[in-house]
Amino acid sequence: MRIITGIAKGTRLKAPKGLDVRPTADRVKESVFNIIINLELPTAEDAVAGAHVLDLFAGTGNLGLEALSRGAAHALFIDHSQHSLAAIKDNIHTAKLSEKTEIWRGDSVKAIDKLSQLGRTFRLIFIDPPYNQGLVSAVLLKLDTTGVAEAGGLIVVEHSKHEPITTQWQYLKLIRTERYGETVVTFLMR
Predict the structure, then answer these.
(1) Domain-located, residue 71
(2) Residue 108, CB half-sphere, CA atoms under 13 Å: how many?
(3) CATH number of the domain bearing residue 56
(4) Does residue 133 belong to any structural domain of this protein?
(5) Which whole-number Å values give the CA distances from 184 to 12, 73, 121, 133, 162, in the listed order?
(6) Is residue 64 part of a domain?
(7) Which residues form the signal peptide (predicted)?
(8) Cα–Cα distance for residue pair 67/60, rounded to 1 Å
(9) What is d(CA 56, CA 35) in angstroms, rounded to the nearest whole number?
């Protein structure tokens, strides 16, 4: 696992030992970012350049770090696991991106409420929860109702093909879905 392009191109990223973390494969990540950079957002020319990024269920920080390497202004990584947070800290340090990052330990769903109370918004949000635990729906419902996702912002969800995403939201709009074996990546816009 490595950063594919940008200022930290080639940096190898570490993952915590065990089966609790399922890092996004490089080929999937490259495809996801190719889609992201070619999407036209109503509020920005580029979903990544200058964006504030939220990486929920961050695991290794792989997606948020890739965004920072490609020109994002800041990334907030949230995960509940101490092992994941240690890996994220190591990866941030290795990629030399410390000045653009923030790390929170806690429940990603509950963190959205806290971010909303603080008035924090993000143009690019990555969601990569443990598969088939109902977390995708819970997070999307919070993002739909809180305004943490900027108007015109992009939400990228990595989930199991066995956990389809509902389309019953007030503010979120499904714009694209891609399948990579057992993994599905869904792109939504607020």
Answers:
(1) yes
(2) 28
(3) 3.40.50.150
(4) yes
(5) 24, 27, 25, 15, 9
(6) yes
(7) none
(8) 13
(9) 20
pLDDT tens, 79-135? 999 999 999 999 999 999 999 999 999 999 999 999 999 999 999 999 999 888 889
Count of C-beta atoms within a 10 Å radius of residue 108:
22
Following CA atoms 83, 162, 128, 179 in sequence, which dihedral angle do they give, to the nearest 10 degrees? 130
Residue with tokens 């971010």: 115
Contact 111, 132 (CB under 8 A): no
Q: Is 61 helix (H, G, I), strand (E, B) or coil?
A: coil
Q: Phi, psi at residue 71, to the nearest 5°?
A: 115, 5
Q: Count H helices, E strands: the chain?
A: 5, 7
Asked if residues 147 and 121 have their Cβ atoms less than 8 Å apart, the reply is yes
How many domains, in total, are found in the chain?
1
Q: Which domain holds residue 151?
A: 26-189
How far is residue 30's CA from residue 131's CA, in Å, rounded to a whole number? 21
Residue 8 lies inside a defined structural domain of this protein: no
| Spatial distance between the Cα atoms of 152 and 172, rounded to a whole number of angstroms | 10
| pTM as predicted | 0.93
Which residue is listed with tokens 């729906």? 137
Under DSSP, the state recorded for 165 is P
